[in-house]
Amino acid sequence: MKKKSLLFLLFITIILVIVTIYTILAKSTSPIVVSDRNLAFPNLLEEINDVGKIVINYKENQYSIIYENQNWFLKEKNNYLVPREKVRNFLLELTNLILVERKTKLRNRLKRLDLDKPSDISESRQINVFNKNGKLIASGFIGKRKYFLYVDGRSGTYIRLNNELQTWLAEGEMNFGFYPRDWLDKKVFDFNPKDVSNITIFHADGSTTESLRKNSESKMSLLNIDPNREFKTDNEGDRLAYVVENFEFFDVYPRQEINFLTKPHTKSSAIYKFFDGFAIKFDIFSLTEEKKKSEFEEPTRWARIIINPDNLILDSKYSLEKINILNKFLKQWDFKLQDLDGIRTTKKIESMLKPQSN
What we know:
Helices cover about 20% and strands about 30% of the residues. By secondary structure, the protein is α+β, with helices and mostly antiparallel strands. It folds into two domains: about 40-185, no CATH class; about 185-350, no CATH class. The radius of gyration is 28 Å and the shape is globular. The N and C termini lie far apart (about 85 Å). About 25% of the residues are buried.
């Protein structure tokens, strides 16, 4: 009897535990709703197709995304084109924010949610959205994300409406870029690295790194190498050519603005010649007096890029018209390089070889 009683009690206990867990989970899918699930920015829903300007404040800075001539532009980047899809996603995410629960309205606690006034020590972002007539239709602060707001994995966002101190937990996520560069389409050009026949890197100290490919099916060979030395990997030469494939910048500035030339720097260049006769030249400006977090951190490198089509063959798969259009674009901008592209356009032979054995 005792054994049967124990088994019965164990069974009842298991059932009660299951019921308790189910009850907790069921309640957790529906947090306390104080707002009756109102939209955070109802006016934006009504005028989402009539938005004319988005202004974002961050870390004591401000940038504006404006709509003109059927396109979106970033004003502070000399009207650099902003992909329509990025603006669309931002407006939809903002429109879909639903107020779920009131949070703090104490000024000294705003920073905890990244909802204080944007400053150098703050991660908050203030947004203002205007329609095409200049009327403000959505305003507020976007703060931290609340992960796993619901058990199905959906997240929330802490927000503050207009300039009110009252903060809210909203249903929905905001994924827009923090910095101006995050809004840009960073892709500049995309050439097949196998079409590169020759690469010459002219270093600031007067030395050169040169590589050569016999045809588009062969590997890129590095020239002027001690035959007794070994490469670190089997494709060191090929890696240099990857720069021209899906080339994307880290940041971009108009060519006429005060820039890296006012700072201490060294200048080098890299020329990529193609079997089709044209060549891409990168003039590289490496900043020399920046503070580094570690010895492994790469220096900031800026590039000015131009394509020389003078020897373009008649049956080239790269049309002269497209190259001229690209050149017109390249002449307007200075490009801050991604670290990997900066390494490849300034790489010395020694860095591609295994250490010499004693």
